[in-house]
Amino acid sequence: MPDAAAAGRRAAEIIAAVVTAKPEAVLGFATGSSPVATYEALADHCADGLNMSRVTGFALDEYVGLPAGHPQSYASVIGRDVVARLGLRRGSVRVPDGSAEDLQAACAAYEEEIGAAGGIDLQVLGIGGNGHIGFNEPSSSLASRTRVKTLSPGTAADNSRFFDGDPSQVPRHCITQGIGTILEAKRLLLIASGSAKAAAVAQMVEGPIGAFCPATALQLHANSTVVLDEAAAANLLERAYYAYVEINRPAWQGP
């Protein structure tokens, strides 16, 4: 796609098709900067008649230790950018409990909730500059489940833009869906934009599978879609072929 806005529109088209085919779809929602343009474009679909009121969902991750109602908690972000904007029912998107007294129990409960919902039909993902998906930092097990993780200094620095530019304000721990959990979703949709993501994207798509770049686990999934802008795709060796495939996508394949 030529830019982040176009990538967002393409990703929103995919999500809208899933919801149209299954109005009670279970969606996995990512936060951070990667999916912002997608949620904006999806809101346009809703304004044009897409009804997401029967959709339920699960957040990909949550910080540990932020006070209830903190504007940068992912519960707050999901409430603003997803539930309110897209017309979902209040409480329809579950978020890991980063304030739980027993965090291990909260992780286990989250896994159980996903299973009880019948699994996730489509999981939205972004990618970190170091190749993380969710908060699964490099060296994460490719079979991992929802658990507590320590953010890398680089991830804390990247996320400081949401905390007045001060990395010391970024929580050091989080609850994240594990890579094994993510891979159980029926479809994966990863969105990336900007040159800062180009190296990680190239490793994810064309590099060997391994824990050093957790996003390479998407190569193991039978139904993964990666939507990129030109800057994020810049390092792909087979970039011209991927563009050719997109242009020549058969109509029967759908979005």
Keywords:
255 residues, alpha/beta, 6-stranded parallel sheet
The proportion of residues in beta strands is: 5-15%
Mean pLDDT: 94
Low-confidence stretches: none
Number of strands: 9
Distance between the termini: 14 Å
Strand order of the largest sheet: 4-2-1-5-8-9
Give the overall silhouette.
globular
What do these coordinates show?
The chain is an alpha/beta fold and 255 residues long. It is 34% helix and 14% strand. The chain contains eight helices and nine strands. The protein has a six-stranded parallel sheet, covered by helices on one side. Helix 7 links the parallel strand 8 and strand 9. Helix 1 packs across helix 2 and helix 2 packs parallel to helix 3. The chain is globular and about 50 Å long. The model has no long low-confidence stretch (mean pLDDT 94).
Short description:
This protein is an alpha/beta fold. The protein contains 8 helices and 9 strands. Helix 1 packs across helix 2 and helix 2 packs parallel to helix 3.
Summarize the topology.
Elements lengths: L3 H18 L4 E4 L6 H12 L8 E4 L1 E3 L10 H13 L6 E2 L8 H14 L5 E4 L21 E4 L2 H7 L13 E4 L2 H5 L4 E5 L5 H9 L17 E5 L10 H9 L8
Parallel strand pairs: 1-2, 1-5, 2-4, 5-8, 8-9
Antiparallel strand pairs: 3-7, 6-7
